[in-house]
Write a sequence for this structure.
């Protein structure tokens, strides 16, 4: 990851800048002028989507730092096989990838959070937990992606399908830009299984005190925890088996 | 009998219905240079991976430095230096970084690894390239770096899977020279190859493998003595006439091999036989008398030439 320092920082700085300017000034004004704040739980539109942007940054960062290193390690450049010819084991390699992903996620989320404060969207004292839950969501999603990619033998369609048919819909249908309940009920399950929705809802609660019931808070937290644990378990098994044929 | 570092009995590896390694027995002694010789698909690389504790055997036993690699993978690997068939260096990192990071995987101290890296850069003749990214190196340089990397932990056993495949002759000779130095230093080497000259140059003892089985075992000289004659006469009559002449030659020599392009005659004195052939007014287009090599041993054992 060290060789990508420059580009990671550029993305981490550029992304929030573009989103905040475009949505805060453009779409935000459009929404607030036309429908006030009734549809977004009484807060300005930019405040409403801020936790979603944090969560999205965390999840996409986690995906970048698991999908690509794992594909490289097993398939493209096979470096994991070199590492595995030392005393290092498969699960240890998985752990290394995961920790590196966490570092990237924490860095990107922290920067994004600073931007949100600088733009006056969130308050410094009350919203730090929103950054923490975003990182937690990123960790959960990263662990799952690592487990999934560790099982990919042919990469012909995988990355395209992942990007266009999984990640984009999750981004659009996870209560990111509007409350999940605005969608017809048959579309809502996409949000229910989406780590982005669960992370965003936790973020809204911790970021600006959105109303979320204790039950739902537990559901969101447990969902992400289950994803984290399952992701790590699957990764450990797949890394060990794939390296020890 | 010197101390045995590796000992395998009835070692078998199956992938589904396919048997890659079929019940082989072998021992490797300390300080020995041991070769696995055979064509592609003979089971050499699979055997190497089992020794390297990165593949599970299907049955049989194997002990490496007194340990079962399946139960003590990390402990076994701590004593091995592995050079895989294809370089798996991190091409986006520099030469030095590749060596350093690999050394740290063994849990070695920064101080030790830094010192070792300097030594290995000299050994691999890569001092001038130490801060260059690996992707910019030539094939021969990458190969030397992979070997240097395998030496960073001062392994008891260095395992080389097809060390010079794909290299040009000059790069091969540089590499052979480096490996010969290691051998002189008493490092135990295990080498797979399908090159006969490589096996003859580097191996004290070797096994000839084909279709997962060991066909023969011994030093290169012993194998040649046992399975071939002192000399080989190669004659070419052109692809049409070869077939015609072969029965006549068969009467003049105990053992002949007909290959698509030439006929090999196994004799003690090649020149004498050639004179007899010419005396019968059979004039070959070209003829060559040479010493027998492991190529001939392989042909004798399997009925096939090594590189098809």
């Amino acid at each position: 990851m060290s060789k990508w320092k420059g580009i990671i920082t550029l993305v981490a700085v550029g992304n929030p800048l573009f989103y905040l300017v475009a949505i805060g000034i453009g779409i935000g004004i459009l929404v607030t002028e036309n429908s006030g704040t009734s549809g977004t739980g009484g807060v300005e539109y930019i405040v409403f989507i801020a936790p979603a942007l944090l969560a999205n940054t965390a999840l996409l960062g986690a995906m970048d730092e698991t999908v690509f290193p794992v594909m490289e390690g097993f398939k493209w450049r096979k470096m994991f096989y070199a590492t595995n010819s030392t005393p290092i084991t498969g699960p240890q390699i998985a752990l290394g990838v995961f920790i590196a992903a966490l570092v990237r996620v924490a860095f990107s989320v922290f920067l994004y959070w600073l931007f949100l404060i600088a733009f006056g969207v969130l308050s410094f004292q009350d919203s730090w937990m929103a950054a923490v839950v975003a990182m937690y969501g990123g960790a959960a999603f990263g662990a799952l992606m690592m487990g999934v990619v560790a099982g990919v033998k042919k990469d012909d369609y995988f990355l395209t399908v992942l990007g266009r048919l999984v990640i984009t819909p999750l981004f659009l249908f996870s209560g990111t830009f509007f409350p999940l309940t605005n969608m017809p009920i048959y579309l809502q399950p996409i949000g229910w299984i989406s780590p982005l929705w669960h992370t965003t809802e936790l973020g809204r609660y911790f970021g600006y005190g959105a109303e979320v019931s204790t039950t739902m808070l537990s559901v969101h937290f447990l969902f992400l925890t289950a994803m984290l644990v399952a992701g790590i378990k699957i990764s450990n098994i797949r890394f060990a088996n794939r390296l020890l044929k | 009998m010197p101390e045995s570092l590796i000992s395998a009995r009835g070692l078998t590896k199956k992938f589904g219905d396919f048997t890659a390694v079929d019940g082989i027995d072998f021992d490797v002694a300390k300080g020995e240079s041991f070769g696995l010789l055979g064509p592609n698909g003979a089971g050499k690389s699979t055997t190497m991976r089992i020794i390297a504790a990165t593949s599970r055997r299907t049955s049989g036993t194997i002990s490496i430095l007194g340990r079962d690699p399946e139960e003590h993978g990390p402990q076994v690997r701590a004593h091995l230096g592995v050079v895989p068939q294809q370089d798996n260096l991190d091409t986006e990192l520099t030469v030095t970084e590749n060596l350093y990071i690999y050394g740290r995987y063994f849990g070695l101290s920064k101080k030790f690894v830094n010192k070792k890296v300097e030594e290995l850069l000299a050994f691999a003749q890569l001092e001038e390239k130490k801060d260059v990214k690996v992707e910019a190196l030539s094939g021969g340089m990458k190969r030397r770096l992979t070997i240097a990397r395998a030496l960073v932990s001062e392994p008891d056993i260095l395992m080389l899977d097809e060390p010079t495949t794909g290299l040009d002759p000059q790069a091969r000779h540089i590499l052979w020279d480096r490996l010969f130095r290691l051998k002189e230093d008493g490092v135990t080497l295990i080498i797979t190859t399908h090159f006969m000259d490589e096996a003859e140059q580097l191996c004290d003892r070797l096994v000839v493998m084909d279709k997962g089985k060991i066909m023969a075992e011994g030093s290169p000289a012993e194998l040649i003595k046992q399975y071939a004659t002192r000399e080989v006469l190669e004659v070419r009559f052109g692809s049409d006439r070869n077939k015609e002449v072969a029965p006549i030659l068969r009467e003049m020599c105990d053992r002949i091999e007909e290959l698509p392009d030439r006929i090999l005659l196994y004799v003690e004195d090649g020149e004498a036989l050639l004179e007899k052939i010419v005396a019968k007014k059979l004039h070959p287009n070209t003829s060559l008398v040479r010493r027998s090599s492991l190529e001939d041993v392989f042909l004798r054992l399997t009925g096939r030439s090594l590189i098809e």
